Each structure stands twice: as C-alpha cells, then as structure tokens.
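pinned: reference chain
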Amino acid sequence: MILHKISSSPFDHLALQHCLQRMHDTDGLLLTQDAVYAVMHQTLYSKLVELHSMYVLKEDAEARGVQVKSDNIQLIGYAELVELSLKYDKVMSW
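pinned: its structure tokens
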C-alpha cells in the first residue's frame, strides 16, 4: 500500500499521468500544491474519480480557487495528511 503524493501541476509535468499508470488498487493518491489543478482537467478528473482512495489537500485547493465536486475525492487537512502517511506502508512523492 503506497500513498502517491503529487505536487506539480499536471499542465507542466507528466508526474500525475505516470503515477496513474503505475498505481495499484490498494494505493492512494494525494494531490497537493499545484497538482490540485488536476481536478479541473476533464480527462484527468474522470480518471481521478474512479480511484478508490483519492485525496486533495484542502488548504491548497482553497488557495488556488479549486473546487472539488465529487464525493469520490476527499478533501483533507494537514492532520488527516499525517494520519494518511501513517496508514500507508510507504509515501512516494512524485
């Protein structure tokens, strides 16, 4: 079980696309910093809502004016981020 943490914009880097290709069903995905813009990208959004464990850091989304409109994507704060990092066996930053 790996928590994949993406922080770079999906419009500038391919980290998110590469990550999605390598994820397993038991893995989780966390979008932070400019990666939260991925929920505004129609093609990426359709892939993100299909994931079993999908998280967006609330403070980063609010700072960038990004709204999450799916029940499949969980908005989390820093306290939940710490809990997630303990829940998963590894945290991989892309």
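why pinned: The chain has one domain: 2-93. The beta strands are 2-6, 28-31, 54-57, 73-76, 90-93.
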